[in-house]
Amino acid sequence: MPDYAKLDEIKLTLNGKSLHGQANAAGFIELARAWQAGDVLSVKLPLTPRFMTAYPRIEADFDKVCLMSGPLVYCAEECDNGAPLHAIKLKTHSPAALQFEPALLEGVNTISCQGLRLRPGRAFADGLYQRADAAGLFELDPVTCLLVPYYAWCNRVEGAMQVWFSRFD
Questions:
Q1: The dihedral of CA 152, 167, 117, 119: what is its sign?
Q2: C-alpha distances in angstroms, 148 versus 6, 56, 64, 128, 136?
Q3: Interacting residues of 147 by C-beta distance below 8 A, sequence separation 6+
Q4: Partners of 41 in the β-ladder
Q5: Cα 43 from chain centroid (whole Å)
Q6: Is 60 helix (H, G, I), strand (E, B) or coil?
């Protein structure tokens, strides 16, 4: 079974009846039976959105998160989320929701999740650089982010795109 699917989330049916299988050490579910012509095996894999983190040696993505559903990576586009995308931190402890959007790009699943957009606070009125302990560095605005499958980005209008986000835990 795929890495993203937990065994208890996989639904197997044979000819309309539920099956319960055990994955072997290699991750395969073995079904030993005498197969008949017309047998129909259905496998339903979960698409529950999940936050993922990159391998720590990837410097550009260190301690950042992305969202996946099934085997697909999702991204945020400026046309849905405004600019700047790099100022968004995703709330990884808030649930992300998968929804099918039939009118978007001839029908795709999108993910919505909660985050915060940082915007420069009053401290930056005094100049380009500020002490890290200065009061009023940033204001935090709650945002609901919309993400599309990575394969579908840049099919509407030009603009920025981002896969990896800072986290707000």
A1: negative
A2: 23, 25, 18, 34, 33
A3: 67, 74, 75, 76, 110, 111, 112, 113
A4: 14
A5: 22
A6: helix
Bridge-based pairing of strands 11-14 and 17-19 is antiparallel
List of residues 6+ apart from 94 with CB closer than 8 A: 113, 114
Chain centroid offset of residue 44 CA: 19
Q: Is the peptide bond before 142 cis (omega within 30 degrees of 0)?
A: no
The length of the chain, given as a count of residues: 169
In a structure prediction context, what are the per-residue pLDDT tens digits for the chain, which is 169 residues long? 788 887 778 899 999 999 887 788 888 888 888 999 999 999 999 899 999 999 999 999 999 999 999 999 999 999 999 999 999 999 999 999 999 999 999 999 999 999 999 999 988 888 899 999 988 899 999 999 999 999 999 999 999 999 999 999 8
Task: HSE, CB side, 13 Å, CA atoms: give it for residue 159.
Answer: 17
User: What is the DSSP code (8-state) at residue 16?
Assistant: T
